[in-house]
Fold this protein.
Amino acid sequence: MDIILTLTYTALAIAAFKLLKIPITKWSVTTTALGGAFLLAWIYTSMAFFHPFTPSARMYYITTPISSQVRGKVVEVYVTSDKSLKKGDPLFKIDPAPYQDKVNQLKAELTLARKRVEESAALQKVEAGSLYELEQYQANVASLEAQLKKAEFDLESTTVLAPADGHVTQNRVRKGITAGIVRVSALMTFVHDEDPVFIAAFRPNGIQNIKVGAEAEVMFTAIPGKTFKAKVVKLWNEIAEGNVFAQGTRMISVTKRLPPGRIPVQIELIDDVSPYYLPKGSEGGVCVYSKHLTGLGDLRLILLHMYSWMNIFSFDEPGGE
């Protein structure tokens, strides 16, 4: 954006020399150059502080990796990518036969164990049985009931269900593959049916002029030449660079240069962007306006529109990312 500002001033200076017929001397050129440098420095610094802009903004959304709780061969796949789903809808099914056999076996053993408890209790009443044997039979029943509960859970888990309303993207499940409890990677990626959260990452120097409820302007790389009205809804109280968690045995070193980090600011769009194709995860830029030097806020808006038009000239090149 500083390039746009410099080019604009240069164009205005050339136009002034031509239209006003100012003599081109070393003094006029030097004065124009130095005056322009100081003026642009003041404008750029003031805008960065009072009306901060960041090109680092993105729409974030929640996904859930889908894997299987039990191991077995996939026998049915019920969904396709991007199909709308409700919570509890089946996604895919693992062969339930071995798990059903386990349930049937435990039910038979449990029936026999309960019968043994009844018989032992009857003998105990007439003092013809051992209390120790009765307690063993009762413990065996409790153990079999716990095993049956686990087996029924495993049987139920052979059908993997949608965890919420949403849809599946990047479906890697096919009939015949073996799904297991070793979750090296997810079999499906489930996208929740929730509005994405738009987060802009601002440098710390201008954060004091960003307030909840402040007016903002958003541009998207995918929509050149357009800006959208928005507002600030939240300033996050944590940044990732300061995150500390238990790892290793050494203390945190503060002698090396630490990254400054950017402060996440949550933005809510006011203008409707539904007429445009804007996939979740799209990037953009955000400018937040304060009540100070409002004239510079108007200039920032003009520059933001110009900056947005530059997205037209962003092309993929051979060998690029």
About this structure: The mean pLDDT is 84. The chain is about 35% helix and 25% strand.
